[in-house]
Amino acid sequence: MNEGRRMLSEMNDRSREVFRRVVEGYLASGDPVGSRTLTRHMSEKVSAATIRNVMQDLEYLGLLDSPHVSAGRIPTQLGLRMFVDGLLEVGQVSEKDRERIDSTFGGNEHDVVSLLDRVGATLSAVTQGASLVLAPKHEAAIRHIEFVSLGADRALVVLVFADGHVENRVFRPPSGQTASSMREAANFLNALVEGRTLGDLRQTIGQEITRRRQEIDALAHDLVQSGLAVWENPGEQSERLIVRGQSHLLEGGAEAADFERIRTLFDDLERKRDIAEYLELTEAGEGVRIFIGSENKLFSLSGSSLVVSPYMNADRKIIGAIGVIGPTRLNYGRIVPIVDYTAQLVGRLVSDRGKG
């Protein structure tokens, strides 16, 4: 994102205008935008040949692409990302769209799930995209946790709460996880879970990780001092204890035992890091975000975009999310305020019903 803003700031006015008009034209029509079309809309009078030269420069930078020989240009995923981050002009929700969204909240039923289902249907109709609605997070204590692998980069966490409520959440597990490691994580958490919320569990695991690091540091200190081992990258994710003079360890039983103890602690530390990451992914709530193309990991739909906004309770705590999924050429300037407006309404209504 910062890289995109830097590239924008380094462009001259003409390049920036050509880039903006190509992206806006593509988002409006879905078609490549040609140099002759741009000559009719540029703020300064400039030839088609000059515009083609600018387009070639933008293509070289990876911001535009030409789908066919001698055709116009379309933005790349990088170009769309840069446009959204630096040039997107977000409009207001139109009166017509506002009325349609507001009408969704007219019912008096206390069933939040039915309300959210209606919100999703209305959001889909208003935006002509698929809607995404994440129901409020449940804050009760957890009775049981289970992780289920759905593939190489998707997993399901099943949360059974003490009050009988059950939730399923899809997340991207840390890389390299297996069904066996997920079972181990679940078993470890279920031994700790009684009376605790997700937030409590994360805090407990964080304390465990800190304690393990302190144990490793203390044990390693003497070995490093003796020259038998070298401590590399201390404090980083990739820290390693590099063993020197291994032949001496065959004679020194105490040192060998220390190394075995450190290896065990490292294994335990890695397991707890993985578990902490599971919990973070399970509980995480994103801020207002736009995911374009292959950034949209939730559904692995490289040709789609996701505009998603959290909604919050009265304490400004994220409890769920509302979003729209569509092609990468979404009308972002229109969709973003619609999603944001809907999320704010849902947050207020869910909070009000919670008080009731």
TrEMBL record:
Domain Heat-inducible transcription repressor HrcA C-terminal, chain residue ranges per copy: 115-336
MF-aspect GO terms: DNA binding
The keyword Magnesium appears for this protein: no
Keywords: Repressor, Stress response, Transcription, Transcription regulation
Domain of life: Bacteria
Pfam families hit by this protein: HrcA (PF01628)
Record Gene3D superfamilies: 3.30.450.40, Heat-inducible transcription repressor hrca homolog, domain 3, Winged helix-like DNA-binding domain superfamily/Winged helix DNA-binding domain
Keyword Repressor: yes
GO biological process: negative regulation of DNA-templated transcription
Its biological purpose: Negative regulator of class I heat shock genes (grpE-dnaK-dnaJ and groELS operons). Prevents heat-shock induction of these operons.
PANTHER family in alphabetical order: HEAT-INDUCIBLE TRANSCRIPTION REPRESSOR HRCA
Family affiliation: Belongs to the HrcA family.
HAMAP family linked: HrcA
The protein, known as: Heat-inducible transcription repressor HrcA
Species this chain originates from: Cereibacter sphaeroides (Rhodobacter sphaeroides)
